[in-house]
Design a protein that fits this description.
2 copies of one chain form a homodimer.
Chain A: E1 6-13, E2 16-23, E3 26-30, E4 32-35, H1 47-53, E5 58-60, H2 62-67, H3 71-76, H4 80-84, E6 90-92, H5 96-102, E7 104-108, E8 113-116, E9 123-126, H6 128-138, E10 142-144, H7 156-177, E11 184-189, H8 195-208, E12 212-215, H9 224-231, E13 244-246, H10 252-260, E14 265-268, H11 270-276, E15 279-282, E16 285-288, H12 308-312, H13 315-323, H14 327-354, H15 357-370
Parallel strand pairs in A: 4-14, 5-6, 6-10, 10-11, 11-12, 12-13, 13-14
Antiparallel strand pairs in A: 1-2, 2-3, 7-8, 8-9, 15-16
Helix pairs in contact in A: 1-14, 6-7, 7-8, 11-14, 13-14, 14-15
């Protein structure tokens, strides 16, 4: 264990990278997928099970936690790690993105955002300064700058204005973060799908200086091709010696394409949310367990998967408990999906280190193209 | 492991008994509490966690399973144990009780009951013969006779007629069960709160002969005093050398009072159902985790409890996840409640064996009288 925050790049293969982020709460092997623990729980999972899937770090949502149970309460109770029984690293977002998607009566000014809680209608303010304070109270290991993220498509002037506001907020976030050894503050690049704005944003962030850099403002509806188009240049605009985090991504092929383009960290609700709606991700694509074809199928979801859903249960059982709306359905499918996502990450880390990433990627796509096993 | 079903009584203390039921799928330490796995899952629990709480045997509901996924399907898939990943003993009820409480358009004749499924309205028949066949297809280790259970209060003629019908059905159940080494068929005593009818029922059952005997028709709204009044004589009417099972009981003090009166086995949905509604059972009574008094409380539910909810989480966390309607709330509180129920059983088994059951019982009641810890 170290008492500082650092990043060691270990191998590269084309633009793809593998390395280790060291923190006082443990190492994060990159490329890393961060399961989302919105309200101080990764839905349907015990934290020790999340760890078993191979996760080194979780993401917590500032917006949700500030409203309930509140950051002050979590602080009084000893911080988010203790509260939710996860002693490894936690990254918290700034709250900005979710204010825009969940809160009502939002008012955006140079200072920040005022809004009403979607839970009880109470009024709150998020600004670079309050976001830093809330993330400090939560005890977050990796803190994100407070930024604004316009929905795409938007005209270039709107995107530029928004990006420049976010850069002013990045400076205020850096100032408010202060000196916190062992904790990291990540800047967030904005600029939509405009290469020149992305470059301007990257430069502004590096002039401020951060422990890591996120590619923000993607995965907001622009589609995979547009996102990959942006990732063809955006990561390279960021420092090579710092972790690069793509926020809110994604589906398995999004993740692989992002890593291929130089991304080190990602997060997404997809594996847990899909698990609760009966969707399983496998090497051979998506399986909808609610389909009648599984009702009598004694085979596991994926015979090569190490998760409890695959080791101990048939598709017929998973189908039955989904149809019966039993909690174990969400528990098992979430466990499976998180395991699959972590196994992709481990596969990519190994392949990048071994110099076989291109072959790994071809194999990944071939498995998906094959499709699910034939019905019996 | 044995390949037969047997019961060894080891110690008694007054009417209370401790012993072991041996089955090919493992031993059942008595007095035993059986968690209920209605639809092939103990709600909110992984089966390995149920085992960790100390459960030696689960109960499965014939009514639910025959409708979905159907007994025939479970049979094709290798039986209920394999289907739900529980390789220890399973007791199945006969379906009779739940037909009466859940199904619509019931029609009761000497032959059996016709009814419509509460899930899809499809028509089904349950009779001693079909119930035995369904329980055989499920692979149940302990099969219950198909019986009829009148709601209380009812007049004595109705109770007597119903009991005698159940006794004729008990003979038909025995005949239909056939010769199945390693599997047990339990008869069910009826007779409401009438001592002479209970005696008549017990005699009728013993004339047929069963591997165990249930006290049926209680815990149907008659209240604890009336139930204990019946248990003051009913168990003693049954053979001393066979297990005695009190169906559908109960709250912790019901369980202790039943064991004191000579009951060896019980089942109830209470620990799991209450866990999902924010109620925790502790040595000091019931804790409603949704109460605001817990919102800032850093203490565990019960500092002496060995379950994950108590070892790893504060009341404040349990309160937060309940209020946030997170699945981990039901997962943790169910785990706690099942652990508490199993710890009561272990405490009674030890105390009966040590000849200290009276002291144990006094301690149990004193702990409950003490009430929950004071708010901070």
């Amino acid at each position: 264990m170290t008492n500082t925050f650092s990043f060691q790049l270990q191998s590269t293969h084309g633009a793809a990278r593998t390395g280790v982020i060291s923190t006082p709460r443990g190492d994060i092997r990159t490329p890393a997928f961060m399961p989302v623990g919105t309200a101080a729980t990764v839905k349907a999972m015990m934290p020790e099970s999340v760890r078993e899937t191979g996760a080194d770090i979780l993401l917590g949502n500032t917006y949700h936690l500030m409203l309930r149970p509140t950051a002050e309460r979590i602080d009084r109770l000893g911080g988010l790690h203790k509260f939710m029984n996860w002693d490894r690293p936690i990254l918290t977002d700034s709250g900005g993105f979710q204010v825009m998607s969940l809160a009502s009566l939002r008012k955006l000014t140079e200072d920040g955002v005022t809004f009403k809680s979607h839970i009880d209608g109470s009024k709150h303010v998020l600004s670079p300064e309050t976001s830093m304070e809330i993330q400090r109270l939560l005890g977050s290991d990796i803190v994100m700058c407070f930024d604004e993220c316009p929905a795409l498509p938007a005209d270039k002037t709107r995107i530029a204005d928004s990006m420049r506001l976010s850069m002013r907020w990045a400076q205020r976030s850096r100032d408010a973060f202060g000196d916190r050894p062992g904790h990291a503050l990540f800047g967030i690049q904005q600029g939509g799908l405009e290469e020149d704005l992305r470059a301007e944003s990257a430069e502004a962030l590096q002039n401020i200086g951060f422990e890591g850099y996120a590619v923000g403002g993607l995965a907001v509806g622009e589609g995979q091709e547009a996102m990959f188009g942006c990732l063809d240049y955006a990561p390279a605009q960021l420092p090579v010696d710092k972790p690069r985090y793509l926020m809110g991504v994604g589906k398995p092929d999004d993740i692989v394409g992002a890593v291929k383009r130089g991304i080190d960290m990602m997060d997404c609700v997809l594996p847990s949310r899909s698990g609760r709606t009966g969707q399983a991700f496998t090497r051979h694509g998506v399986v909808n367990i609610k389909n009648a074809r599984h009702a009598d199928d004694p085979r596991p979801l994926d015979e090569n998967c190490r998760c409890p859903a695959c080791r101990n249960y048939s598709r017929a059982y998973l189908h039955h408990v989904f149809r019966s709306q039993e909690m174990i359905s969400g528990m098992l499918l979430t466990w499976h999906n998180l395991t699959y996502f972590q196994d992709i990450m481990q596969g990519m880390r190994d392949a990048i280190a071994a110099g076989t990433f291109a072959a790994w990627e071809a194999d990944f796509h071939a498995g998906r193209a094959q499709g699910d096993i034939e019905p019996l």
